[in-house]
Write a structure and sequence with these properties.
The complex is a heterodimer of chains A (about 375) and B (about 220). In chain A, about 45% of the residues lie in helices and about 10% in strands. Chain A has a five-stranded parallel sheet. In chain A, strands 1-9 form a two-stranded parallel sheet. In chain A, β5, α12 and β6 form a beta-alpha-beta unit. In chain B, strands 2-1-3-4-5 form a five-stranded parallel sheet, with helices on both faces. The chains are: A alpha/beta (about 375), B alpha/beta (about 220). Chains A and B meet through β3 and α9 of A and α4 and α5 of B. The structure holds cobalamin. Cobalamin sits at the interface of chains B and A.
């Protein structure tokens, strides 16, 4: 690896800093979390395919970017992508259920994975399948066209690697990992399976079916989310929400078809001792107050720029650690000074009293100097007195 | 009169069965199918207003589009036997640009364009610039619409406009872009004429263009 200066010591380690923030206390400074997927591919000798299929190389790439950017507070373990995508269970990322195109398989080795939801006319799930799910479970739908038994077998080799790297992040670098396992709601999953446009019609036509199937699926989904950590020993589970937001459904539908399941999933994970990350893309502003029903001081909430973080501070500031408001496209199209300005705005408005993290998903074509600007601003301007 | 208001209300309430029932009844009573279309549109427009006010959400837009399209199907046989009355107001070629496969927002925009009476050619997702060019030529389109949510989409939009330019078509079409991240800077970079992250706004913009004889 390129030679780097050792990461500069600060008053707290990243693990301490993040855990303090989750507990809603003030750490030494605001933690910073660039959510990086395939960014290293554009800078060093690693392909997107290797980021998924070669745990050593992907760990190397994640360590490289960590050092290149001078250190940040949440990282990802090499091999985790593989565990997510070749995952044998019917969830969001599983190639056995959804039309994921992978680098080196159906895409160029350096293209990020693409999930295709071309389901308007010929959805993966038909309306009749709602009843079949209840009859047969979900496994009958698995599909070995995009990956095979061999890929699945390889999981037993990948698991221990991910465990090793997870441990390395937490104890050697003292940086927490994220997304050791992932779960979403039955609603989000069914929407992917049916295609969002079809599913929105189902919401009007078959709301009772959706509820029935959700009731049936929810416990299974909770179990599936624990698959990753069961292999890697990780402590975190990401619960993702997209299609229950104000960009998609009304509050009435949210209350009826979405929130009860979301609440159940998150609460159970917290009760089982996991650190839960809520990954909430799109606009949740008008439903933030529901999140107060979740356990206090155990969760951190990622929002993208659609949700108003200042409202979130107002509503949830004394309840859960928040992070958001940065527009991912800024990291490609913006400049360091622009990003510094945006980060300062967030710190000024939300840092007081703790419970703030600064971060964003980083597009794969981002400029490093822009990501670094976010990190450095947190390290200087984000200091608590 | 009353039945017409009933239909508008049924659409606004997103009551599918009632809407279709009323459409059938009006057909049986010999109502002018173009009139029925106008009534349906009125309902959909009100839904658009409520969407803009955040009283209705994407689901409601999708449902409204569905009710409109299914009703239009009921009218097709009679519309065909008559002169094709309302001529299409414009021809739109649309797609999610190269490198991007997000299409939830684009699909709803396509539906709304159809409701608006436009002839729409939806190329799908991850569309190479050349595909846009070919379709614009083939259909003699006057509107081109790009959808994109990823930053790579901006480069693809630029490329597509360039290709239209080098083929002498840029001045013959109006270009509108849409999707979560688009703003004025995107519009300029992409060489487009308008941008919006609200599908209903998009239809309004195109309506304006055609009213003022542009495109
Ligand atoms: C759903 C979603 C997906 C789904 C898409 C399903 C589908 N069939 O579209 C899936 C899971 C497949 C997906 C994949 C990916 N995604 Co995605 N996705 C989203 C998400 C959460 C919501 C998008 C959405 O549908 N919104 C709701 C619709 C209704 O809104 P909309 O598209 O803006 O449309 C409205 C208007 O803009 C307008 N409109 C839309 N198009 C047009 C066109 C015209 C002409 C007009 C006038 C109007 C118009 O009409 C709509 C209603 O008003 C966004 C986050 C976000 N905040 O938006 C991320 C997001 C867009 N995705 C992102 C990323 C990174 C990805 C992936 C690269 C992830 C990965 N590493 O695999 C892949 C990319 C695959 C690819 N090559 O495209 C990033 C983009 C960052 C960037 N680069 O700038 C985002 C912002 C998430 C984030 N916070 O980082 N994604």
């Amino acid at each position: 690896m390129e030679k780097f200066e050792p990461i500069k010591e600060e008053a707290m380690s990243s693990v301490e800093r993040v855990l303090t923030s989750i507990k809603l206390k003030e750490p030494d400074r605001v933690p910073v979390w660039p959510l990086i997927d395939y960014l290293p591919v554009n800078y060093i000798d690693v392909t997107a395919q290797e980021m998924i299929e070669d745990p050593e190389k992907s760990q190397w790439a994640f360590e490289w970017i960590y050092h290149k950017l001078g250190g940040f507070d949440i990282a990802f373990a090499g091999g985790s992508f593989y565990m997510q995508i070749i995952n044998p269970f019917p969830d969001f990322f599983s190639i056995f259920y959804l039309d994921w195109r992978l680098p080196g398989r159906m895409l160029d080795v350096n293209e990020s994975p693409q999930l295709v939801e071309n389901a308007l006319d010929d959805p993966f799930f038909k309306v009749e399948d709602y009843d079949k799910i209840i009859e047969k479970g979900l496994l009958w739908k698995s599909n070995f066209k995009r990956a095979g038994m061999k890929d699945m077998m390889k999981l037993s080799k990948i698991g221990p690697k991910v465990a090793e790297y997870t441990e390395k992040w937490w104890t050697e670098f003292k940086v927490p990992t994220f997304n050791d396992g992932a779960c979403s709601t039955p609603f989000d999953l069914l929407s992917m399976f049916r295609g969002s446009t079809n599913f929105m019609k189902d919401i009007y036509r078959y709301p009772d079916k959706i509820k029935e199937v959700s009731d049936f699926l929810v416990d299974n989904m909770i179990m599936m989310g624990q698959y990753g950590p069961s292999q890697s020993g990780g402590k975190t589970i990401l619960v993702g929400g997209v299609r229950g937001s104000a960009d998609f459904i009304s509050l009435k539908h949210f209350e009826d078809l979405y929130w009860p399941y979301f609440k159940k999933i998150v609460t159970e994970y917290v009760n089982k001792g996991y650190i839960v990350q809520l990954h909430m893309d799109t606009d949740w502003t008008d439903r933030l107050h529901y999140l107060k029903e979740l356990p206090k001081g155990k969760i951190y909430l990622h929002m993208d720029e659609r949700t108003d973080i200042f409202k979130a501070k107002e509503i949830l500031g004394d309840h859960m650690c928040i992070e958001g408001n940065l527009k991912p496209s800024l990291f490609k199209l913006g400049t360091p000074s622009l990003i510094e300005k945006e980060v300062k705005k967030i710190i000024d408005g939300c840092a007081e009293g703790g419970g703030l993290m600064v971060g964003s998903e980083i597009p794969d074509d981002a400029k490093l100097e822009n990501v670094k600007a976010m990190i450095d601003t947190c390290k200087t301007y984000g200091k608590y007195k | 009169m009353a039945i017409e208001q009933d239909l508008v209300n049924a659409v606004i309430d997103l009551d599918e069965n009632k809407s279709y029932g009323l459409v059938k009844k009006m057909v049986d009573d010999g109502a002018d199918p173009n009139k029925i279309i106008e009534i349906l549109k009125k309902g959909v427009e009100e839904i658009g207003e409520r969407f803009s006010r955040k009283e209705y959400f994407l689901t409601e837009l999708v449902m409204a589009g569905e009710i409109f399209q299914q009703s239009a199907k009921l009218l097709e046989p009679i519309l065909k036997s008559m002169e094709k009355a309302s001529k299409s107001t414009g021809t739109v070629v649309i797609g999610t640009v190269k490198g991007d496969v997000h299409d939830i927002g684009k699909n709803i925009f396509v539906t709304l364009l159809q409701v608006g009476g436009y002839e729409v050619y939806d190329l799908g997702v991850d569309i190479e610039p050349i595909k846009f060019l070919e379709k614009v030529k083939e259909k003699n389109a006057n509107i081109v619409a790009y959808s994109g949510l990823l930053t790579v989409a901006l480069d693809s939009m630029k490329e597509t406009t360039e290709l239209l330019k080098t083929n002498g078509l840029r001045d013959k079409v109006k270009i509108i872009i849409g999707g979560l991240p688009v703003d004025e800077m995107w519009m300029k970079e992409a060489g487009a004429d308008a941008f919006t992250d609200n599908a209903f706004e998009g239809v309004k913009i195109i309506n304006e263009w055609l009213k003022s004889g542009g495109g």
